[in-house]
Amino acid sequence: MKRTIAGMAFSLACLMNLSEAQTINHDKVEMENGKNTGMCVKLPMQPDGIVRLSKIEVHAEYLEEYVKYAIEVGEISLRTEPGVLTMYAVAEKDNACRITILETYASQKAYKSHIASAHFQKYKQETLHMVKALVLSDQTPLNPSNSITNIIK
C-alpha cells in the first residue's frame, strides 16, 4: 500500500511539472526489475534540449552546507521533473570547493520549468552567499545517439 501511494505521489509530482504541450504516460513511474525506482517517467530529449556543465566554486566555509543543498535539489529534480534528465554533481579531487554539475534538460521549456520550481528557487536563494563563482557552459553532444540514464537509488 505504501509503495502504491508513493508511486501515485511521484506521478502527481510529474504531472504538476508538465505543461499542457508536454505529454507522457502519467500513470507510471520508472520501473526497474519490477520495482518502483521513485523516479518519474522522463521525457525524450528534444532538438532544443540542453546539455550544460555548471561550474561552481564554493567558499570553503560553506562547502558542507552547500553540498547538502545541491544533493537535495538534484534528487528532487530527478525524482519529480520529467524534463530533468541528468543532474550529476562531482567535486575536483584536489579542490572539493570546485564543483561541476552535468545537467541535461529535455527542452528549453523543461529548463524554464525547472528554474521556476520551488525546490530550485529554495536552493538558489539559500546558497547564493555560498557561491564564489559560477560558470554555465552549454555543450553540444559529439554523439547525439548516446544518452545518459541518471537514477537516484
TrEMBL record:
GO terms for molecular function: monooxygenase activity. Residues 50-143 form the ABM domain. Residues 1-21 form the signal peptide. Keywords: Monooxygenase, Oxidoreductase, Signal. InterPro entries: ABM_dom, Dimeric_a/b-barrel. It comes from the Bacteria. Pfam families: ABM (PF03992). This is Antibiotic biosynthesis monooxygenase. It comes from Akkermansia muciniphila (strain ATCC BAA-835 / DSM 22959 / JCM 33894 / BCRC 81048 / CCUG 64013 / CIP 107961 / Muc).
